[in-house]
Amino acid sequence: MTDPTHKAVSDPEEHADQPGQTLVTRDHEVIRRWAESRGAVPAGTADVPGTTVSPGTLQLALPGSGAASDEVSWDRWFESFDRYDLRFRYREAEADGTTSTFWELDASGREEG
Questions:
Q1: Domain range for residue 53?
Q2: What predicted TM-score, i.e. pTM, was given to this entire model?
């Protein structure tokens, strides 16, 4: 049975069916567009300088969030995202229709986006 509160997304032109719906993706362009539309930048802390970003510190630093991680390039962020086989879960809008800044990363094995 499909959960209508979650939707897999694999293209930047796909959107939520209703406000408050959680979307999940692995598509780099979907993630980048969502983040940039909210002024977020990729961030994280490397295990060793010049290597991938530690999965536990991989962040999208939203304006005013006070993120403690260092800004990294999108290429480096996505290299870590792919290496650790993560999924990006997010909302475009909250149930009341306001723009959402909700996002989280989780391990693979869930909905494919």
A1: 28-107
A2: 0.84
